[in-house]
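Our consortium's second objective concerns turning raw sequence data into structural hypotheses that experimental partners can test. To show how far this objective has progressed, the report includes one record in full. It was chosen at random from the queue rather than selected for favorable results. The single chain below, 170 residues long, was entered without modification.
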Amino acid sequence: MRRRLYFMLPDVAHAERALRELLLARIEVKHVHCLGKRGMPLGDLPEANFLQKTDVIHGAGTGMILGGFLGVIGGGLVVLYPPSETMLPIGTMLITGLLGSLFGIWVASMAGTAIPNSRHAAFQKEIAAGKMLMMVDVPSTRTLEISDLLNLRHPEALFGGAEPRIPSFP
């Protein structure tokens, strides 16, 4: 299991030096993601991908829950008050719940593509001012080691916190 650490760096040059320190600490470049102001050249820094920049994952999760809930309610209403004289099986609620979840995932993830990642809301002001957000995915056992390393060798890097956990597969 990995944890994501956030560091706010003043500019690209400081972020490149911090990246070199992370590489020397045996953090692979695929576990480092940088986010700057739109249009800012990142040089050799690994840029954050689409899923990290937008709120598509949060939107899909919200849409799945809300769509499933509304689908089950709609299915229950169809079972209780069928459109014709036939009796519908209770499995109708399951089917409408699944269809509602799928529809909710689709709609909410499409909406989430237009919204910046809500986890970065605390950093938006600094990013707009030209600073660089560096996200580092480290093994849970090395969280303190890596945060101490960057804080010691790069006092200009402001530690922005950590996410509780991220799955191993991304």
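The partners drew two points from this record. Residues 60 and 105 are 4 Å apart (CA to CA). Residues 56-80 form the longest helix (25 residues). Both points have been shared with the crystallography group to help prioritize constructs.
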